[in-house]
Amino acid sequence: MFFFISDEHYFHKNIIKYCNRPFNNIAEMNETLIYNNNKIVTKNDIVVHGGDFGWFKTIKEVEIFIKRINGTHIFVRGSHDKWMNNNYHEIWQKRFGDKFIVVCHYAMLVWPRSHYNSILLFGHSHGSLNDKIQGQCYDIGVDNNNFYPISQEQIFEIMKNREDNFNIIRR
Fold it and tell me: Higher pLDDT residue, 13 or 6?
């Protein structure tokens, strides 16, 4: 099973204030995010992180921290992921049956296979674009999803009620 999440901002003190998150401090936020992940994600699941994972200085710090979080983890680079080297994705994509899912930290007007009605999952906006997005797009940021990752099944269910991408090629 695949899960998607973005903008956890582990160890980022000011994100609590900037996004009006309901936490008293970093420790409470970090522990809630870890608990919420581990409540629904098993060790056998795959979690795609759509950027801004946390304020870490080194990959080693992330490797130590990520051991507490269930799943195998795939990281897409966000605007605050200074710890990443060049071995990480700017855009991640995968076919699920007859549908492609594309993950990028940023919302885009067009993206890989958007003209074939692929799904774009993005972060960065912390739920602020919900009234502006169109087509097969969804904000996977924690601020938009009650601080939980979202499953591939949930994504497909949401997309059933969304319009097609504006640039779809009709066959």
Answer: 6
Confidence of residue 43 (pLDDT cuts 50, 70, 90): very high
Give the whole-angstrom CA distance, residue 76 versus residue 29. Answer: 21
Take residue 158 and report the two structure tokens written for it: 């949401």
Token pair 């994504």 is at which residue?
155
Q: Which fold has domain 2-160?
A: Purple Acid Phosphatase; chain A, domain 2 (3.60.21)
81-84, Cβ contacts within 8 angstroms, sequence gap of 24 or more: 81/51, 81/52, 81/53, 82/56, 82/57, 83/56, 83/57, 83/58, 83/59, 84/59
Residue 87 pLDDT > 90, yes or no? no
Q: What is the pTM of this model?
A: 0.94
